[in-house]
Amino acid sequence: MSEPPAILELRDLRVSLGGRRHWLRRAVPPVPAVGGVSFSVREGEILGLVGESGCGKTTLGRTVLGLQRETSGEIHLDGRLVSSAQPKRARVERNDIHYVHQDAAAALDPWWSIGRTLEEGLIIHGGRTAGERRARVREMLAAVGLDESVLPRYPHELSGGQLRRVTLARILVLQPRFIIFDEPTSGLDMSVQAMVLNLLLELRGRLGLTYLFISHDLSVVERFCDRVAIMYLGRIVELAPTGTLFAAPRHPYTRALLAAIPRLAPEPKRAGRLVQSEPPSTACLPAGCAFSNRCPHVKPACISTEPALENVLDHHVACWRWQELRSDARAA
Amino acid sequence: MSEPILEIRGLRLAIKTDEGLANVLDHIDFAVARGRILGLVGESGCGKSTIIRAIIGILPPGAEVEAGVIRFDGEDLLGLNEQELNRRIRGSRIGFIPQDPYLALNPVFKVGTQLLEIMRWHAPDEGVRRGERNRRHRTRILELLRRVQLPDPEAAWERFPHQFSGGQRQRLVIAAALASSPALVIADEPTTALDVTTQQQIIDLLRDLVGEFGLSMLFVTHDLGVVAQLCDDLCVIYAGQTVESGRTVAVLDRPRHPYTRALLACHPDRATAFTGIPGAVPSPFHAPPGCRFAPRCGKARPACAVRRPRLVDHDRTGRRVDCVLYEPAEAVGA
Predict the structure, then answer these.
(1) Which pLDDT tens digit goes with each residue over A41-71?
(2) Could you tell me whether strands A315-317 and B241-247 are parallel, antiparallel, or unpaired per DSSP bridges?
(3) Among A132-136, A240-244, A297-301, B14-18, where is mean pLDDT lowest?
């Protein structure tokens, strides 16, 4: 079986945030926001990154982009090592990667017309005449389904869905190959969300793009992504093709998440509420498996050693007991 | 059947703005039956929040109710003045769970102090000494905090709002809404900001509380999945008009109004392709006189643009569809 080549590969990526030392005051230790993440994104796929708030999804996205410097680990882009570079250099190296912000309205300058915003990236990158720039902007506006009448308008004059399209067009003019979407559908109405997702699918096919789709909305991820990575407190706990993951989740956390999706047709009897309480902060992780203090299947081994992400038939899972639990589920 | 706890009939409301008169609500009709949860569903800007504000009488300046009644427990709320609303209705017989609990709590006071104040307003216990009254109120609040499953209520009493997580803050404001033993609780998208596992816990909690305290609830949301999980009845709003209402299961299984169908077809659980609903919501400044969905509706007839459908209950369960396609034949001929 020939797999498409990996466009992006992360190896044991760790990111710590904050932390402060002072000779008089007590030192504040840094928070390990991302703790040893390894996965690869294949050319042309949509990889969903799912997790609860505070699990490090956004930090991971920012680190891949180069806005946040990794503490340790490697990032490979097209097989080329692009990590451990100075921040400015990192952005140049990772020019193929672009990022769409969660809040489209906040990501656009309210004092700049849409046309000026769209052209800015091209001016920074240089090498084009004004006429070429305008042609490129028009081409991408058409690609995202907007017409030229929005060019002289300002962000407050556009609707939420239109703003998403503008933020998308803004990076498409730069010809990215890999786009990181941070919660692209949050705050959108269902009817608008469907149109935005449809547009993203179409653009991927037309422009040959690869997406990292950060989201907490599992029902969207289920319909939209090729593979899904589940993140919990800075770690990937499970990664599998979408169909496999939703049909046969292996990690207890994934099962809890899937059981909590508010489905349109509620199952008459749910298999109990799997998780109570809320996740602990990344600053004070439990020993061993990060999920051990909420897991209903915890064993002494889970508390002593952290499980590694093991790969069985393209289904990665980090749990000591997934094989036992799977046979339990079958027996039941 | 006993009369509903809250009934809104033919509510029409307009707001005067610098740009002219905005016809925000036009023919809003629904009822919250006693002991049941009604889900009020609509996309942003459809008037959900304005409906809530009209019920509890906190409309923005320039807003005027042009027609209709809001009847709560047999009493017309629109006829009450500010003082009566404050003393007898808001917070005491109608509890409110806000969308953002962090904005609803005062950041500079301890949680216990804030909850005590609510009790003092709505359950004054006249004739009891202050110390004795405070002790009683405190016991009652701690009991409520335990009931909403807030970990360690005694310690929570001394803490400030920022020291709680999002889910815990939501539990706090739920306890606050229940403090005065209201008959009706209005919840304004209380789970949108929460993670799925926390959302599930809050939904379970709300359902249990409604049964236990004999409450009725108006649950406002845009998430049909949450409605399917929690609500007994459902009312769909589009651009300030009621389009369809009935039992949740019936409406979700067999949606009739073209808008309800289109909306359900957008839900990731149902969608065959991501199509969305083409077109845009009409502006309240130039709203068409008839059905406001008509310009985007695939089945619209010339009549849709000019007149509202005659409303009929379709069956004994109170199913209603505000669409000319479902008018009985004799009504169309008339």
Answers:
(1) 999 999 999 988 888 888 899 899 888 888 8
(2) unpaired
(3) A297-301
Q: How confident is the model at residue A312 (pLDDT cuts 50, 70, 90)?
A: confident
d(CA A243, CA A149): 41
Is residue A14 over pLDDT 50?
yes
Residues of A in contact with B199 (CB under 8 A): 260, 262
- Partners of residue A224 in chain B, C-beta under 8 Å: 268, 274
Is the separation of the CB atoms in B8 and B69 below 8 Å?
Answer: yes
Identify any residues that bridge with B200 across adjacent strands, giving them in sequence order.
none
Q: Which one of B100, B201, B274, B293 would you mutate to disrupt binding with A, by most A Cβ within 10 Å of its Cβ?
A: B274
Q: Which residue has the tokens 């900001």?
A: B193
- Any idea which fold B6-93+180-333 has? Rossmann fold (3.40.50)
Rounded-to-integer distance, Cα B106 and Cα B305, Å: 47
Residue of B nearest to A216 (CA): B195
**Interval B221-243 mean pLDDT:** 92
Q: Report the alpha-carbon distance of residue A51 to residue B326 in Å, rounded.
A: 44
Give the residue among B25, B230, B1, B163 at the shortest CA–CA distance from A263.
Answer: B230
pTM of the model: 0.86
Average pLDDT in the A230-243 region?
92
Distance CA A251, CA A203 (A): 33
8 Å CB contact between B173 and B101:
yes
Residue B125 has pLDDT above 70, yes or no: no
pLDDT value at position B33? Answer: 93
Amino acid at B313: D
- pLDDT over 70, % of chain A: 94
Report how far residue A125's alpha carbon sits from residue A121's, in angstroms, rounded to the nearest whole number: 6
Domains annotated for chain A, with CATH where assigned, are 6-21+29-96+176-264+272-331 (3.40.50.300), 116-172 (no CATH)
- Contact of B35 with B230, CB cutoff 8 Å: no
| Alpha-carbon gap: B319 to the closest alpha carbon of chain A (Å) | 19
Contacts of B263 in chain A (CB under 8 A): 190-191
Report ipTM (2 d.p.).
Answer: 0.80
3-state helix, strand, coil in chain B (%, to 5): 40, 20, 40
| CB within 8 Å: B204 and A220 | no
Q: Are strands A227-232 and A235-241 parallel, antiparallel or unpaired?
A: antiparallel
- Three-state secondary-structure class, residue A250: coil
Which of A222, A260, A265 minimises the CB distance to B196?
Answer: A260
Residue A209 in contact with residue A9, Cβ under 8 Å? no
Q: Of B290, B258, B278, B222, which is closest to residue B23 (Cα–Cα)?
A: B290
DSSP H stretches of helix in B179-301: 196-213, 224-230, 248-253, 258-266
Nearest to A218 among B196, B222, B226 (CB): B196
pLDDT tens track for A262-290: 888 766 545 445 566 677 777 777 778 88
What is the mean predicted confidence (pLDDT) over B29-48?
A: 91
For residue B162, the tally of other CB atoms under 10 A from its CB is 9
Domain ranges of chain B: 6-93+180-333, 108-179
pLDDT of residue A329: 65
